[in-house]
Design a protein that fits this description.
This protein has 111 residues and is mostly helical. The protein is 77% helix and 0% strand. It has a domain of 69 residues. The protein has three helices and no strands. The longest helix has 33 residues. The protein is rod-shaped. It is found in: Bacterial flagellum basal body.
Length: 111
Amino acid sequence: MSQGIEFNRLMLEMRSMQMDAMARAKPAPATSVQEAGAPSFADMLGQAVGKVADVQSQASSLANAFEMGTQGVDITDVMIASQKASVSMTAMTQVRNKLVQAYQDIMQMPV
């Protein structure tokens, strides 16, 4: 009888291990880490690019207004807007470079 109990215990243990192995082999269901109201990374990046485009457009329109001699448009305002546009474009370029580098690093990782 002792051997029967040992055999049953061994079989239960083996089934338990088999179930654990099968559970690990199943892919985890895709869960979203994103909260309900939080924007996605793509949305945030799109908004940032849109803001850079707006700053560039404002600087261009201020420069055109100054060139046409529009009253109330000062050279200092034009230069400040131009520098803001330049800084925002440089920052966006740096973000793009970092994203490309991160993508390349991930693609070079061994699987």
